[in-house]
């Protein structure tokens, strides 16, 4: 029996399993998807609007009704401890993982009701998703451009520019399977950028990337945001998020604990201190005397 190609957005179905009162409750019905340009009731359309996203894996509630508004033209950081639900939330918001409840709108386009239209607006660098690593770096980025229906000459020009900007020219003819972890991150970023999307969603983009390459990537992303693009980046590095991002959300236990501009969330302290206050889990360092016996 074949599954229908496009299922309706799963907003109002009852939970599959019994759950605590707050967990996986269906959110209020979202407003109809707005057009992808202009504004609604005088307010600009958010680059990404997440409304009540929820996901359960067996007995574990990974994401528990997350709602976020990412302003267009912002550099938005998502921070949280391991297992907080960041990757699951971003996967649902970008069409990689179907939510149990909730909606995600990219510039007013519903990701699950109109997936092809929404995905044209996005570039995604997911964490841990396999690439076509039996292609060379140049072939992979070229394939990404052609897959999106771009003109071959335009693709060729952009591939050359991206490989140069990301310091991958010397390895353009090498198979991606032979790349280091940092090089793999960079070629995946090039594939996400090739079609000049309006929204970039990057899950741990600086992990395993050397400091020089990280500085180059930051420069590319800052120029992209300055020209009107929007970047969402998930990261564990608080100092990096604090220096780079204009807005931030702190996520833990599948919920948003705080969101807003970096200054609003910091509330007069550093982002790292505020993060520890919100998330908890700091431990005193008494004990371990056996480490101080030298």
TrEMBL record:
Membrane topology reported for the UniProt record: Peripheral membrane protein
- Which one GO biological process term can you cite for this protein? response to antibiotic
Spell out the protein name for this chain.
Answer: ABC transporter ATP-binding protein
Q: What InterPro entries does UniProt report for this protein, alphabetically?
A: AAA+_ATPase, ABC_transporter-like_ATP-bd, ABC_transporter_ATP-binding, P-loop_NTPase
Per UniProt, the ranges with Low complexity bias are: 14-35
| Chief localization | membrane
Give the species this sequence originates from.
Paenarthrobacter nitroguajacolicus
Q: Which GO terms describe its molecular function?
A: ATP binding; ATP hydrolysis activity
This protein's record includes keyword Iron = no
């Amino acid at each position: 029996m074949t599954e229908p190609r496009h299922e309706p957005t799963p907003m109002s179905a009852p939970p599959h399993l019994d759950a605590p009162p707050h967990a996986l409750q269906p959110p209020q019905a979202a407003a109809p998807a707005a057009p992808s340009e202009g504004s609604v009731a005088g307010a600009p359309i958010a680059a990404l609007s997440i409304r009540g996203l929820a996901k359960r894996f067996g007995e574990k509630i990974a994401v528990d009704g997350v709602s976020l508004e990412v302003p267009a033209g912002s550099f938005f950081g998502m921070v949280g401890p391991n297992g907080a639900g960041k990757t699951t939330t971003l996967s649902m918001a970008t069409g990689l993982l179907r939510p149990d409840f909730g909606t995600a709108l990219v510039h007013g386009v519903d990701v699950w009701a109109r997936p092809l239209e929404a995905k044209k607006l996005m570039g995604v660098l997911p964490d841990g998703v396999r690439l076509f690593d039996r292609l060379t770096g140049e072939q992979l980025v070229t394939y990404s451009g052609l897959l999106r229906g771009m003109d071959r000459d335009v693709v060729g020009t952009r591939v050359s520019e991206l490989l140069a900007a990301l310091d991958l020219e010397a390895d353009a003819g090498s198979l991606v399977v032979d790349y280091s972890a940092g090089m793999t991150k960079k070629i995946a970023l090039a594939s996400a950028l090739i079609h000049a999307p309006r929204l970039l969603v990057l899950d741990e983009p600086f992990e395993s990337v050397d400091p020089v390459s990280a500085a180059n990537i930051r420069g590319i992303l800052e120029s992209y945001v300055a020209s009107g693009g929007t970047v969402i980046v998930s990261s564990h590095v608080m100092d990096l998020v604090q220096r780079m991002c204009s807005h931030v959300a702190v996520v833990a236990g599948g919920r948003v604990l705080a969101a807003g501009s970096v200054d609003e969330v910091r509330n007069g302290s550093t982002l790292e201190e505020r993060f520890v206050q919100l998330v908890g889990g700091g431990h005193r360092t008494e004990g371990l005397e056996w480490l101080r016996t030298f």
